[in-house]
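Case 562 in the screening queue. Each case pairs one protein sequence with one candidate compound; here the compound is S-adenosylmethionine. For every case the pipeline is the same: read the inputs, emit a complex structure as tokens, and attach any notable structural observations.

Predict complex for case 562.
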Amino acid sequence: MKRAKQVSPRKTVRKQPGMHASAGEKKGKAGFQPAKGQHTNGGNSFLREDATPYSTQSAAALEIATAPILENDTAVLDAAPPLGIALETQGADETPSPAKSEALGNIERLNLEAETRWAGKLRVDSSLTRSLVSFQANKGRAVYRWFKYKEAFSAGLIEHLLSKYRITKGILLDPFAGSGTALFAAGGLGMKAEGIELLPIGRTLISTKQLIDLDLMDADVKRLAFWRDERPWGRYEATKPIHELRITRGAYPAETLDGMGKYLAASEQEGERVQAVLLFALLCVLENISFTRKDGQYLRWDYRSGRRQGKKIFNKGEILAFDRAIADKLHQIVDDLRSGELPDDLFATVRSKTEVKLRFGSCLEILPRLKSKAYDSVITSPPYCNRYDYTRTYALELALLGVSENGLAQLRQEMLSCTVENRAKDLLALNPKWKPAVAVADNQPLLQSILAYLDAQKELGLLNNNGIPRMVRGYFYEMACVIFESARVLKSGAPLIMVNDNVRYAGASIPVDIILSEIAGQLGFEVEHILVLPNGKGNSSQQMGAHGRDALRKCVYLWRKV
Ligand SMILES: C[S@@+](CC[C@H](N)C(=O)[O-])C[C@H]1O[C@@H](n2cnc3c(N)ncnc32)[C@H](O)[C@@H]1O
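Case 562 output:
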């Protein structure tokens, strides 16, 4: 059987709201414009003509900004948000105290110095559109479009990077594999790929795609088409209870819950492969048939759920009926699988027979067990340091997969620290060999000044969540260990490519790109480039208009193992 065709990606790559210059950028405020008249590739053979030097933040960046850290201050939280969780809703008009102004001024000065120091490596790359670097560009790709893993990058990005940096063979490793985009994109090009992923939803997505690639038979696809056309669950008497978690209780309308129960019960009559794809299809539609919407940190609840609403009533729009949603999804899956069989289909690509290997668990546990100098590239996107909690936003999927309350709490703690709920991990107890990584983070001046600032803000009671300093500290120290291990497992000269976003807390910009690159530079990598997307986050007209604040860079880093 052949793999599905690409569904004319060009047609579906639409301009994203952030792709236009913001009002602030147009007025020449801090932003990511290429420096005028400096269109040069600096002699680097990898740097294409569409990469231009990054112009460091203008003086406007030194203005002290205290705009809200999050714009979604009316988000409706899970019915019972965990203790101590509050959204950052600092008033936009709040005037910082002189002490805070001075501390922020210091951070901004350090940031500016760091940017100046890194000016030769920071490059605005106009080929890296926001659509390509996010899940967006997968929406037009057969197979990749089935499950919307919002935090994913696109298969197109991986293909672009593999081609740009001439990575054609060997084993690619992604320690934060998510839905497996890097693994399958590399596999599709004939490379070997290995991934590590903590969450069971990622594991299920990857293993089902593997099953489809390697084992699915024509008869199975026919059976899926039967399910699409005949909707056999509608005639089924038996039902299966749908497992819920505290934070998912009441997520579906009653008739949807009924449909799901019958669908799962009926699917048990099928063989293992068809059953696996039917479960996968159900996972793909959970958000659309529920009262919830994934919203970064939490699930947002539609007012029709009966859950308590915030100041602003949340209406998610159409909530799809179960029968229609699942039949449409099966339609898409069957269509994609069959389109690859058409002999005259120019876009068809044969299903990849490459074995993608997934290790299930935390990369902090698994990386140290991998062989040294065994991998030819790492391409990855870790969670960003942005408080996004995957265990909350993917709670519907995790509940359906049978994760218990305790299991959920454990997963949350095992995740790379990126939420205010993560407790500090004892890294040296986990692995005493990480001493050098911890020492590099201990001696990272920019990181330490940011941590000192956040600690001081906490002491003064000025943070609206006291977990922020612990999260930021945990994030960088844990990432230092991941970088240390990545350097160990990569062959000499092998590239590590990472997608990540800069963040801002309590008004202070945190240049994640520069801090991690400085850490990488001391742990066995040479930093080749930090490729900056043409338009950063945090430069919406509201934010820029009110405060003239600098935009947050979204970047693709290229480091090379020395
Ligand atoms: C930005 S997403 C990666 C998305 C992926 N690039 C894709 O295209 O699907 C980050 C992933 O890291 C995973 N993760 C977080 N902490 C982890 C850990 N300690 N070990 C392994 N995976 C982890 C999350 O569950 C999430 O799937």
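Case 562 observations:
- Residues 149, 151-153, 176, 178-179, 181-182, 196-199, 202, 362-364, 381-383, 390, 414-416 surround S-adenosylmethionine (CB under 6 Å).
- The CA atoms of residues 99 and 105 lie 10 Å apart.
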